[in-house]
Amino acid sequence: MASKRALLSLRPLSSPRHTLHPVPLALSTQCVLPSNPNARTTFPLQYRWKSTDTTAPLQNAAPTASKPSTTPSPPPIKAYTYEDILALTSSPTPHTLLIDVRTPAETARGRIPTAQQLDITAHPDGLFLGEEEFAERFGWPKPGLGVELVFYCEAGVRSRVAARMAREGGWRVGEFGGSWDEWMGKGGGVDRA
After folding, report:
1. 5-10 LR contacts (CB < 8 Å, sep 24+)
2. Average pLDDT, integer, range 144-167
3. 159-191: pLDDT as tens digits
4. Which of 18, 58, 69, 153 could form a disulfide with 158 if both were Cys (CB 3.0 to 4.6 A apart)?
5. Which residue has the higher pLDDT, 53 or 175?
């Protein structure tokens, strides 16, 4: 089991005149997936350095909070229930796409009908590929930004990561938090193709 210590330790750089402190600009996530505890998916952590020297202008400092942000916050991730997914599979629409983010070994046991597979463990950048490379790698066309992507996995952890990544990429997203476990537990249909 992995320790809870930070993977990256940054210490402030000091001199008699000033101290530099790391200022986080982007979040970092490291996922250890239950299917393979030795494989890790890491998203980068970016830093700028901010000086505490008040006599010199700040260079590469993080923006101050005095100005309100003009960037709109992304829409929330829609939560789907078993009943919502059941309705979606019985009456699919071209505006909503169900995506299974489990590994091929997991999907060999079956997947929810109408779902496309995109292994988020092996291809965390999958949705950010060009259209041709996406179709070549996954065997189905890359969804446009007008399509709502609904993610599920084995138990809900990877689908949450995939939904957040897709939302940052500009898609409308949903997540079936109960995922495969709930689907099978309630007797949902299985596509073994």
Report:
1. 7/42, 8/45, 10/47
2. 94
3. 999 999 999 999 999 999 999 999 999 999 998
4. 153
5. 175
Entry field: residues in the chain: 193
**pTM for the full model?**
0.64
Per-residue 3-state assignment (H helix, E strand, C coil) for the chain: CCCCCCCCCCCCEECCCCEEEEEECCCCEEEECCCCCCCEEEECCCEEEEECCCCCCCCCCCCCCCCCCCCCCCCCCEEECHHHHHHHHHCCCCCEEEEECCCHHHHCCCECCCCEECCCCCCCCHHHCCHHHHHHHHCCCCCCCCCEEEEECCCCHHHHHHHHHHHHCCCEEEEECCHHHHHHHCCCCCECC
Rounded CA separation 96/79 (Å): 14
Per-residue pLDDT at 143 exceeds 70: yes
Is-contact 17 32, C-beta < 8 A?
no
Q: What is the pLDDT at residue 68?
A: 60
Q: For 107-126, write each residue's pLDDT tens digit.
A: 999 999 999 999 999 999 99
Tokens standing for residue 53: 């020297």
Nearest to 8 by CA among 33, 32, 44, 37: 44
